């Protein structure tokens, strides 16, 4: 049986998501905020974050698939679901579960930039920094870890564990 070691408990997640929602609500006051969540991992984070915002926001999704490696990004990425809303001249905030090497986010940001949004920022539940290779700025971070493979609260390992309400480190 794989080991699941608790990383973020329910009350910690609630507190972290509430804090970041408050910051976003204040930063984007009187702007035209569009949240673009990266499927599938960001679905639970988006759901909690969006309902804690005190400002209007549109919601859309995109999905990328990364090929090659199992638990790390290969850098070969392609879109399997494109955004549907028009983001031109809008304030876009990309919502992601976890950033590891940063290659996926770099690819997503370069793509979204081509639609000429007014602003383009990143909000992530977990910044896992040890293997960061791509040059990206993460504007909103809930939690930081150095390394480890995390599951739960949207994050999966081979499509398992996404529905767990808390975040764990998976030791296979
Ligand atoms: P990156 O391109 O290396 O930054 O990888 C980002 C993507 O890999 C995320 O969107 C996740 O889907 C996945 N990923 C990276 N680390 C983890 C992890 O610890 N648990 C679950 N998924 C992860
Ligand atoms: Mg993901």
Detailed description of the structure:
The chain has 172 residues and is of the alpha/beta class. The chain has one domain (10-148): Rossmann fold (3-Layer(aba) Sandwich), CATH 3.40.50.2020. Helix content is 23%, strand content 35%. The chain has helices at residues 10-27, 43-52, 103-113, and strands at 3-8, 33-39, 58-67, 76-81, 91-99, 119-128, 140-145, 150-151, 167-171. The chain has a six-stranded mixed β-sheet, sandwiched between helices. Strands 1-9-8 form a three-stranded antiparallel β-sheet. Helix 1 (10-27) crosses helix 2. The protein is globular. The model has no long low-confidence stretch (mean pLDDT 95). Bound molecules: inosinic acid (IMP) and magnesium ion.
Question: How would you briefly describe this protein structure?
Answer:
By secondary structure, the chain is an alpha/beta fold. It has 3 helices and 9 strands. Helix 1 packs across helix 2.
Comma- or semicolon-separated keywords:
172 residues; alpha/beta; Rossmann fold; six-stranded mixed β-sheet; three-stranded antiparallel β-sheet; 9 strands; 23% helix; 35% strand; binds inosinic acid; binds magnesium ion
């Amino acid at each position: 049986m794989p080991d699941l070691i608790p990383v973020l408990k329910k009350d910690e997640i609630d507190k972290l998501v509430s804090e970041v929602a408050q910051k976003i609500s204040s930063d984007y006051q009187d702007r035209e905020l569009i949240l673009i969540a990266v499927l599938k991992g960001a679905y639970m984070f988006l759901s909690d974050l969006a309902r804690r915002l005190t400002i209007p926001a549109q919601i859309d999704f995109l999905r990328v698939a990364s090929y090659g490696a199992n638990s790390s990004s290969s850098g070969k990425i392609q879109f399997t679901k494109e955004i549907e809303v028009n983001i031109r001249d809008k304030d876009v905030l990309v919502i992601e579960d976890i950033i590891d090497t940063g290659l996926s986010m770099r690819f997503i940001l370069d793509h979204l930039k081509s639609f000429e949004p007014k602003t383009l920022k990143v909000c992530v539940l977990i910044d896992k920094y040890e293997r960061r290779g791509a040059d990206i700025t993460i504007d909103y971070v809930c939690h930081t870890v150095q390394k480890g493979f995390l599951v739960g609260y949207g994050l999966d390992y081979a499509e398992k564990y996404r529905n767990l309400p808390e975040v764990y480190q998976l030791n296979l």
